[in-house]
Amino acid sequence: TLLGRWLRIPVSITMRGTEVPLARDPGRRRRIIKALQHATRIFAVSDSLKRHAVSLGVAADKIVVVGNGVDTIKFHRLDRRAARERLGLPLDAPVLVSVGALVERKGFHRVLECLPALRRRFPGLRYLVVGGAGPEGDWSAQLSRSVVELGLQDCAVFLGTLPPEELNVPLSAADVFVLATRNEGWANVFLEAMACGLPVVTTDVGGNAEIVTNPNLGILVPFGDADRLPQAIADALVRDWDRDAIVAYAASNSWARRVRPLAEEFAAIALRHAGTNTRRRGSPGKPLLRS
Question: What is the pTM for the complete model shown?
Answer without folding.
Answer: 0.88
